[in-house]
Amino acid sequence: MTLKVAVGEEAGWAVLRVSGEMDLLTSPVLRQRVHDAVADGRRSVVLDLSDVLFCDSSGVGVLIATRRLIRSCQGRLRLILPAQGAVDGSHVNRVLAALGVRRLFEVYPDVLAALDEEATPLSA
Length: 124
Known about the structure:
Elements: E1 3-10, E2 13-22, H1 27-39, E3 44-55, H2 57-72, E4 76-80, H3 91-99, E5 106-108, H4 111-115
Parallel strand pairs: 2-3, 3-4, 4-5
Antiparallel strand pairs: 1-2
Helix pairs in contact: 1-2
């Protein structure tokens, strides 16, 4: 399976909608799209990972590198990891939790919540 990244803009945020599998072969696609968004001056980024079916350590590495990049330019990063999903919620959420890095990210249930400045992130 491949990884698709659709890039858009909503309410001043770059919204990257990711679908497919994030693994050693496909994760560089997401890394490049994030770098492109930052190079275009985007400092507020939402990664919608609702449709990611699989994520290995390479995918987690890209998420952590994205966090580091956004923080280095005083930006904001929010992840969409829905509690409801294909089977038992978000695969990415389970992987991040299992690795103990879920707490590093601001996580929201959907894009609307992530764009709402009054919304509270989901607890880790």
